[in-house]
Amino acid sequence: MSDSSIRGVVFDMDGVLTDSEPLINRAAVQMFHERGVAAQPEDFLPFVGTGEDRYIGGVAEKHGCVLDLAAAKQRTYEIYLELVPAQLRAFPGARELVETCRSRGLKTAVASSADWIKIAANLKKIDLPPEGWDALVCAEDVTLKKPAPDLFLAAARKLGLAPRQCVVIEDAVNGIQAARAAGMRCVAVAQTFAPELLAQADLVRPAIAAVRIEDLCGAPAQG
Question: Which one of 37, 61, 87 terminates a domain?
Fold first, then answer.
């Protein structure tokens, strides 16, 4: 590995480590349909990466419906957790990249806008359990979610590193904006959105399996 100031790798979870985006989408669509709201899968795209409060709340606003957000989120998670055992998978190469980072002496963290219940279920299912990470940051840990930088800055603090010493791996526009606002290098994987939509990242790879240790080095883009 080339000489670099990067000492920590901060992974987003949904859409980066796991193929969970279609599952939470399906769960949320079903929840809305149970309430008589004809939400469509594509309605949720602008809110990917912002956390379930905004993911659900934004679509509710779009359809002009008033929800008990806590109850709606609880029901969405109930449906989601029923799907996880049989359908959730790690993206090919995800576990291998995490293990390579650890073997090279890099600290590893997960920083996700998801709630802890979802993070714990996902990481256990893909054999990257919570206890194996140097830091975990979830929706409950910060007030402002992505595209605000708070989740990533909290991860850096937990790792004991400066933001410039961290690189973020993201799949969503909101996450890339959060990484840039945090002053961190960002490598994007085009597993959820088309590569041209991820151009604000320092580097875009087609999938996490294509990310190499060398890609994680370097300075974040300016501006």
Answer: 87
